[in-house]
Structure formats: C-alpha cells, structure tokens
C-alpha cells in the first residue's frame, strides 16, 4: 500500500486497538501491521504523542529480565477515539465517492 495514513487516522487505529486491552509496543505494532503497512519507527512517535496528549498512559511489567512498557487507553483517549470515529464516518464516504467508488448510503 503506497497511500500514507493521515496522522489522525493512525491515532484512531492505535486508540481503537487499545479498547481491546493493554499492549506493549511490539505487539501493538504487529497488530497494526496486520491491517496496514507501518514500521515500528512510525508507531513509537505516535505512542509518545498520544501519551503526551493524555490519551494513553504507560506502565512497565517485568518479562524475562527486562521491562515491557504497556500502553493503556485513558478516559480522554476514549473521548478522542469517539471524535476520530465520528470524523471518519463523514470522511470515508466522501473519499470513496471522489475516487469513483460507491457508498452504501
């Protein structure tokens, strides 16, 4: 896929995954990569920004002598996800129409 994912949509993808539970960075990247091609170097700055904005928190858990940093959705992160989902519902059919596709309205 050569299309670059807009920042807001990538934020929404990460926040949406975190509604399923807490993830550590590597598994979060793998989950996103199952759907869209991104690199770990793409995702970690997104995670830092989402944390800085208060949309997620982190905690560390020991694993095989190392710590894994887990990411957890906050209440304001859930609110932000709802905003992104609302924007997407309006945005997606417009892009589909402009690309010559059909919408299911």
Count of alpha and pi helical runs: 4
Strands of the biggest beta sheet: in what spatial order?
A: 1-3-2
Any idea how many domains?
A: 1
The radius of gyration computed from the alpha-carbon positions, rounded to a whole number of angstroms, is: 15 Å
Low-pLDDT stretches: none
Which geometry do the CA atoms define? globular
Distance between the termini: 27 Å
Largest sheet: 3 strands, antiparallel
Q: SSE string, helix = H, strand = E?
A: HEHHEEH
CATH class: Mainly Alpha
| Number of E-type strands | 3
What is the annotated CATH architecture?
Answer: Orthogonal Bundle
Structural overview:
The chain is of the alpha+beta class and 105 residues long. It has a single domain, classed as Arc Repressor Mutant, subunit A. 55% of the residues lie in helices and 17% in strands. It is built from 4 helices and 3 strands, in the order H-E-H-H-E-E-H. It has a 3-stranded antiparallel β-sheet with strand order 1-3-2. A hairpin with a 2-residue loop joins strand 2 and strand 3. The longest helix is centred in the last third of the chain and has 24 residues. The radius of gyration is 15 Å and the shape is globular. The chain starts with 6 loop residues before the first helix and ends in a 7-residue tail after the last helix. This is Transcriptional regulator, PadR family.
